[in-house]
Each structure stands twice: as C-alpha cells, then as structure tokens.
Amino acid sequence: QAVSGNTSDAGTMQDVINSLMPWERDYLLIGMDHSISALSGNPAAGGRFDILTDVTGVAWGRPFSMHPDGSIWFIGSRGGLYRLGAGERKPYRVSETTIDERLADLALDTVVVEMQWDDRMQAFLIIISPIDQTTATTHYLYDVRNNAWFPWVFATVAQNPKVIHLMDGDAVADRVLLMGSWDGYLRNVDYDSDDDDGVAIDSYVMIGPLQNGAMVPILLSGLQAVLGASASDVTYSVHVGDSAEEALAAAESFGGKFAAGRGRWSRQRVSGHAIYIKLRNSANNETWSLERLNAMVSQTSEAFARRF
Questions:
Q1: Is the pLDDT of residue 210 over 60?
Q2: I need a surface site. Which of 79, 88, 185, 192 has the fewest CB within 10 A?
C-alpha cells in the first residue's frame, strides 16, 4: 500500500527523491538529491527509514545496477561512481582515483543516467542520455576486473540510447543488452561486430605516461608490438611533452604501423620528460587486439632535468 513519506510512522523523507533502488527482499534504497536513505521492512508494519549518508545523493533516472557479489553500484548526484556492499552503511566512491573529474562535470539537469551490469564483459555499461536528442554525449564502460574506464561515443546522436535493458535468456543469442535509441530502433550489444550499423568503429588507447620520477628526461629508442594473430593493422603515434598533461595533448612526434603477431622493432628515437604512445584503428570491418607493447627506454643526464 502507499505510504506517506512525510507523515509515516517509519520516519520522514528529508530530501527530493530522484531514484528508488530495490535491494534484496526487504530493503529499498531511496536516492535523493543530496542524501540516501534506506527503507527496511514494511513501513506500515514496523519498518523504518534510516539515513545512510547526507554527503551525496543519487542522479536522476535509473543510475544504478546490481553486481553479482550482491553490492549495488550507482552514479552520485554530484557525479562519481559509488559502491555499497551488503551490510555496509556508507557508499565507497569507486571513481575517486580515476575519472572523477569527468563524472563530476556531468550536467545532471540535462541528462538521464542509466546503468546495467554486463556479465560477459564483467563491466558496468553507463548511459548518459541527453534530454535534448540533438546533443552529443559520451557514454562509459567500467571494467571492474581491471578498474579501467572506456569512454565511447556513437557516430550519430540519433543512435544514442534512451533506455537499456538486460535480456537474460537461456540461449546465447538471448543473453544480450538491449538499447532503445532516439531514432526509434531497438539495438543489442554485439560482442563480435566489427562495425556500428555499417559505420566504422574508431578505437584507440593512450599508453603512458612514460617518465622518470625525478623528472629527468628519458630517451625512447625502440618500440615493438605483439598483436593478436588475427588482428588488423594498427597505427601508432608517439607524443612528447615537458609534463604528462602536455604530452597527452601534443601533436604526433612520429608514427607508423604494427601488423598482426610479433612485429619488427621501430628504431625511431625521441626524448622528453613525458611520453605517450597511441595505438589506433579506425577502419571499417576490422578488429584488433594487443597482447604486449615493448619499449626501449633509458634515462638521460640529470643536467637536463626540470628546474623549478
């Protein structure tokens, strides 16, 4: 039956409710604008509301998902990915040492956030869907095993999903994530596809920064990649700067291509305080995988170290 949130014997709601998160049989998390409460039991028969935290709330929409270990994960009202384990009273901010700044910059008044656990990828799919369908956006996949974030963008804004749903059937083809998009299509995540509805997938990774703790310049004198046996060609580029931030934004110093299997060494040389290596493939109907990247790096003289 309905229970009044401000006059019930179980307690009162002190905040604006953004999301209701069912957790286990008799436990409901209530995500509010700047706080989180928990409803235990039946509020009409001895149940109660308890405040878990008044430091963060929960984003509007369905920004939560369950992990197989029984914990619940969600996007906070100020950004950030949080985890709350069974029996715990305070949520842990998972993203605080990774992409917290990106998530903190989300304009949560203009988007709807949705999350879903993908058991095959062992990751959370996080959808950032703008209310205005003409607005470009970046979605995220969080790989729990490696604590790794993968931002991804659709080729057209019409492909941006408004809702995601896990269809968990018995057949392999029935265990898929479904996405309902702005263009009216219902799509599923295809783990073996080499394009997006005929559009090439531009995939890349930045590896680094390579640098010395004493800020002494380093010399990169060789690169070798070991790609998967059936991988398509991958282009590489080297980016150098006086700091990691500068190197990440720097233009390419030199580049080339790596082919499938164990490639030949590239002997081009470059030195700097910080170095990034970018691997990329943007061709249609091609896929690639990296087994190992080898680099020959040596320290230069301290006479070239930075001075402050």
A1: yes
A2: 192
Q: pTM for this structure? A: 0.83
d(CA 72, CA 22): 9
Q: What are the tokens at 138?
A: 């970046």
On the question of pLDDT at 54 being above 80, the answer is: yes
How, if at all, do strands 175-181 and 161-168 pair? antiparallel
What residue type is assigned to position 172 of the chain? V
The answer to whether 215 and 223 have CB atoms below 8 angstroms apart is no
SS3 for the chain, per residue?
A: CCCCCCCCCCCCCCCCEEEEEECCCCEEEEEECCCEEEEECCCCCCCEEEEEECCCCECCEECEEECCCCCEEEEEECECEEEECCCCCCCEEHHHHCCHHHHHCCCCCCEEEEEEEECCCCEEEEEEEECCCCCCCCEEEEECCCCEEEEECCCCHHHCEEEEEEEECCCHHHEEEEEEECCCCEEECCCCCCCECCECCCEEEEEEEECCCCCCCEEEEEEEEEECCCCCCEEEEEEEECCHHHHHHCCEEEEEEECCCECCCECCCEEECEEEEEEEECCCCCCCCEEEEEEEEEECCHHHCCCC
Q: pLDDT averaged over the chain?
A: 88
Cα separation of 6 and 122, whole Å?
Answer: 40
**How far lies 298's CA from each of 83, 216, 219, 267, 272, in Å?**
41, 10, 5, 14, 11
pLDDT confidence tier of residue 303, bands split at 50, 70 and 90: low
